[in-house]
């Protein structure tokens, strides 16, 4: 289905658009960091991996981060929890994110806010070749950072889900294979509950476990030389990411259990 609104990103952004976008991203990121630092207890394992990927990777290599999705505030709060303020005010350095058009782009003011915040509207069910995924691939081919929740929705049960193949397409069809950094988190659904009245809660506990970077250059090149279809490559890449997410889930559950136990002991 086509989007029910005009495509929100100008082909040639003006200086005023870029300024408005910088302020939107900067304020959202800074407020998220303040909330997560002072009003939430956050424990992060291997946070330096994400720092290095965002700040110190080869400038020609794009970045994809993937994570589980437990709350509608996972982005921007998780980004705020893991990165320094200076990243939020550097618009070219900040991530593009994918958001469901029927949730975050439902009214005009939301369309404006989220598009200025570098959120790409995705129509769930329209597959990997919709305009939104084409646009995300364009950003990857410019060497930028795209963040994805490949479960495709807020996972209320926290059980492992089959990941969507969109992330596989962005890796399989990129001009330069992206660096992929997976991470898993727990506790975000206590910061913003998934039931009414949907108000953010203070003094909650969040744990984040960042995994080792994944590099798919050799795998993708090998499969292309074998004349494998793009669908096969997408599936193989997505399956590997899913396996890493499963490993991180177990590690994050242990981290979160210790986090909860330490806090209860200290109190």
From TrEMBL:
Keywords: Acyltransferase, Coiled coil, Lipid metabolism, Membrane, Mitochondrion, Mitochondrion inner membrane, Mitochondrion outer membrane, Transferase. Residues 216-258 form a coiled coil. It is a peripheral membrane protein. It is found in: Mitochondrion inner membrane; Mitochondrion outer membrane. Its main location: mitochondrion. Residues 63-188 form the Phospholipid/glycerol acyltransferase domain. It comes from the Eukaryota. It catalyses: 1,2-di-(9Z-octadecenoyl)-sn-glycero-3-phosphocholine + 1-hexadecanoyl-sn-glycero-3-phosphocholine = 1-hexadecanoyl-2-(9Z-octadecenoyl)-sn-glycero-3-phosphocholine + 1-(9Z-octadecenoyl)-sn-glycero-3-phosphocholine; 1'-[1,2-diacyl-sn-glycero-3-phospho],3'-[1-acyl-sn-glycero-3-phospho]-glycerol + a 1,2-diacyl-sn-glycero-3-phosphocholine = a cardiolipin + a 1-acyl-sn-glycero-3-phosphocholine. GO terms for molecular function: 1-acylglycerophosphocholine O-acyltransferase activity. InterPro entries: Plipid/glycerol_acylTrfase (IPR002123), Tafazzin (IPR000872). It holds the Pfam family Acyltransferase. GO terms for biological process: cardiolipin acyl-chain remodeling; inner mitochondrial membrane organization. GO terms for cellular component: mitochondrial inner membrane; mitochondrial outer membrane. Belongs to the taffazin family. This is Tafazzin family protein. It comes from Adineta steineri.
């Amino acid at each position: 289905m086509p989007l029910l609104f005009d495509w929100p990103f100008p082909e040639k952004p003006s200086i005023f658009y870029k300024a408005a976008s910088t302020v939107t991203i900067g304020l959202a990121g800074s407020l998220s960091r303040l909330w997560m630092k002072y009003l939430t207890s956050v424990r992060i394992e291997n946070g330096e991996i994400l720092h290095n990927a965002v700040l110190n990777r080869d400038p020609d290599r794009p970045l994809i981060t993937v994570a589980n999705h437990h709350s509608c505030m996972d982005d921007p709060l998780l980004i705020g929890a893991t990165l320094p303020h200076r990243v939020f005010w550097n618009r070219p350095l900040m991530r593009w994110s994918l958001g469901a058009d029927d949730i975050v782009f439902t009214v005009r003011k939301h369309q404006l806010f989220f598009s200025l915040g570098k959120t790409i509207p995705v129509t769930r069910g329209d597959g990997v070749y919709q305009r939104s995924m084409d646009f995300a691939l364009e950003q990857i081919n410019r060497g930028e950072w795209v963040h994805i929740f490949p479960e495709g929705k807020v996972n209320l049960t926290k059980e492992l889900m089959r990941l969507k193949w969109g992330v596989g397409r962005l890796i399989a069809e990129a001009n330069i294979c992206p660096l992929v950094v997976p991470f898993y988190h727990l506790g975000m659904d206590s910061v913003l509950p998934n039931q009414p009245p949907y108000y953010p809660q203070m003094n909650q506990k969040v744990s984040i476990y960042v995994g080792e970077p994944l590099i798919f250059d050799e795998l993708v090149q090998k499969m292309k030389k074998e004349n494998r279809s793009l669908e096969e490559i997408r599936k193989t890449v997505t399956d590997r990411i899913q396996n890493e997410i499963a490993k991180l889930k177990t590690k994050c559950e242990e981290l979160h259990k210790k986090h909860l136990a330490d806090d209860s002991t200290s109190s």
